[in-house]
Structure formats: C-alpha cells, structure tokens
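From the pipeline queue, job 12 of 40. The input is one protein chain; the requested action is below.

Action: predict structure.
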Amino acid sequence: MEWTCKRKFKKNTVGILIIFFFLSIYIFPQEINLYEEKIFEKDLSIKKTEIQIFTFPQISISFPDVPLIHLEDSYEEEKNYIDIKAGSFSSFYTDLFSKWEKNFSQYLFNFKTGYSNGYRENDMINETYLEFGIKTEKPFLNFTTNFLNKNIELPGPTFSPFSSTRNSENSNVSIQYKPDKEPFLFEISNKSYKTENFSSNYITLGCIIEKENINIKNYFERQDFWEYFCNNSISSGIFYKNGNICFGGNVKGITEYGERFLPYCDISFLEGFKFKIDGKYEIPNFWYDFQNINYKELKPEKIPPSESYSATISYQKEIKKSFLKFDISEIWWKNFYIWKDNDSNFLLEPFSEKDLWETFFNLEFNQKIKPISYFFIRFNKDFFQRDIDYIPESNLETGFGFKNDNSEGKVWFSYTGEKVFSPVTIEEYLLCNCEFLWGVKKNIRLGFDVYNIFNQEYEYAPGYPGEKRKILLYTKIYF
C-alpha cells in the first residue's frame, strides 16, 4: 500500500516566525511581567521553569529529580469549582474540584468525565477520572490516590480502516512521609494498568536521608507484566553539595541488564549560566501513550531499559523587558526508544535505537508588551547523528496573550516539523489556536477555545489525519 502526503506550505515557515520573534523584541519595549500560562494543547517536551535572577558570584545548587515518583500539587488551586465544556464532535467534559482544611490537614477531591465522538468514523473517546488526596505538615504526609477508566475506538489508517476498540484502566497510589525532626523521607508509589488482554504493575519504594551537605537516596523498583515477565531494579546514590557545586551519582542495577554508574553534577556560575551532567537508566513505561493515542500499541514483551548520559549548558536571565532561556545538550543514548510500525499492522510500537548521539537545542522567550499583554516563543530542535523515524525535525510555538482581573486569553501558532516514518515522510504543518475566558460575575466565568482555526489538513502518522477545527464553549463556576 503506497502512502502519500501533500506538502502544506514552503520550508521558510520557521524562518518567517523567527523573524517575527526578533522584530517583536524591538517594536514592543515594556517591562516584563510573566504569567503562568498553559500555552500548549500538546506537550512538546518544552517545560517552563521558575525564573531566577543571579548576580556573580552567587551559586545555586539542585539535586537530581526523584526517580519515577511524581506527585502533582493540586493543593495550589485556590478555589473550588465546577467546569463544563461542550463543542465540536459531540464533545462534552466536566470537572469538579474541591479543596478544604480540617484539623490542620488539607484534603482534595477531583472528579472528571470526558466524551468525544471524534473527528473520524470509529474515533470515540470516553473517560472517567477520580482523585483524592490528604496533606499534613507535622508530621509531613502527602497521600494521593487516583483512578482512570478510558475507552477509545481505533479508527486505523484511512486506507485500511479498523473497527476495533481499546478499553483500559489504571490506578495510582502515592505516599510521601517524613517523621518530625528526623532526616528521613519515605516514599512509595504503586501504579496499576489493565486492558482486555494483559495487565501491568509498577511499584517504587524509596528512602532519602538528608544530613548537612550530604543527600543519600535508595530506591527499589519493580515492573510486572502479569503472566509474562517482571523487572527489578535497585539503586543507591550519594550527593554532596558545598558552596558552588553539587556532585555525586547513583549505582543502579536492573535484572538481566546489569549495573550502571550514573554520574550527576549541577553547577550554576557567572550570571545565569548552568552546567549539568546527568545519567539515566530506567525501566520503560509506555502505558500513557498506549491509553491515550489511537495509533499506538503495546505488547507484553520484555524490552531493554532506556539509558542515556548527557551534558547540558544553559542560560537563563530576566533582562528588563524580557525573559530568555536557552539550553544546549549533548546526549549519548545507549538505548533510545521511538515509535515505529515494525510489524506492518498500521499501529506504532516502541522501537529501540542503540548507540546514538543527539544534540538538543531549546529556546524560551517571553516579553511583556503592555500592562496586561505579553508575547511568547518556544522552540526546540534535535540533531541526531543518523536519520531517526518519528521525531519531528523541530517544534515551535509563538503567540500573544493577555490577562487582567476579569478576563484572559491567548492566540498562538503551533508548528511541527516534518517526521519520517520510513519510507514515508509526513510534511510539516502549522496550526493556529486561541483560548479566551471572561468573568461575567464574581464566581462565574464563560469562555471558548478554538483549535486549528483555519482547518489545516495534516497527519500525525501515515494514514492518520490530524484533528479538524475544534470549538469548545465552557463555563466555570467557583464555590
């Protein structure tokens, strides 16, 4: 079966947008005031970071991230609310969030539902999400549990449609506990996944000891694909900080794949510069993609751990009228995973690329235009030593936004570079999106979102067209 794709516009698109970026710096000179906005409809792996202003010779030190366990702090939400959205493709979403305090403890409850008939035949999505959490300070305890049930239809490629469905569910329990006046932090996380044909479980146990300039971390991790296989890993690391440097590393072993030493070093120097060395050696978890993307599949097969070693130099600074951050990383991948249709069934599965060098460049820029408006740009690009499938040649998002006491909104362009699915190439595409929200009363807000405003035709993967124009109307009621 021959796959063909139409070219949507010329290659100079990125150049035009970057010229637009530099012109805006000089046309709109104002003092900066950054807003914490969610500007991406999709995660392009470009994360906003907290602004820090450095003056020589101040040094900032940071320890490596805790492996696997990630507890989102929903307690930061200030108000209780009900959010209802409806729109294109018979879409309907609800979100109920509540937070309260009692006996020096904080509690949260979150219940979400979502339904969309999809923009193609046999493209329905139906999901239910439930979360409950407790947080105390003395002693410190952070407990979160959540459950997700998700049903999606698999439309298949346009030239060979499917009529199948995928039903899955997952649950997660996460606990962090620190006794009073003790230098210990205990952590446990258990993630369970289930679909019609197989189920899996990931558990992490951790203990962190902090004493003066020393930080010791010990972790046990286990992955089970029930009735098929299991993986175990044990790691122990020690990190030392003293004035202008933090360094150390982990020794980590994974059954059947051996032990690795994972170095770590993090130094901030001069004014806004940072140098970092980091090693990663992890049991892969592809369940998020499997549950949420209808052109990917997961099989209960044992695959090698992902492994990488990176060196990064970055610069971050607020310069009167603007905020600028960029970083360049040189990464050696011993084992790197992409998505590829290796068995020719028109669904992508994890595929291992070995012994690969990557240079990664990331740029973030924000500038305030007037007291309530701002401009932003975010760009990243990968350079690999050889041709790699699936990874876009570059990603760019840029646009304008505003925010005041009663309303907020933004309009932005999202560019995705061409992607290769050997022997096919998916052409680049540019989408325009907007989101607006108005406060009509003290506790009531009305808004609308429009994605792919100009109804651009594009593809995510060969035979899988991208979503057409999507309009959502919504109301948010605080209580």
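Job complete. The longest strand covers residues 349-370.
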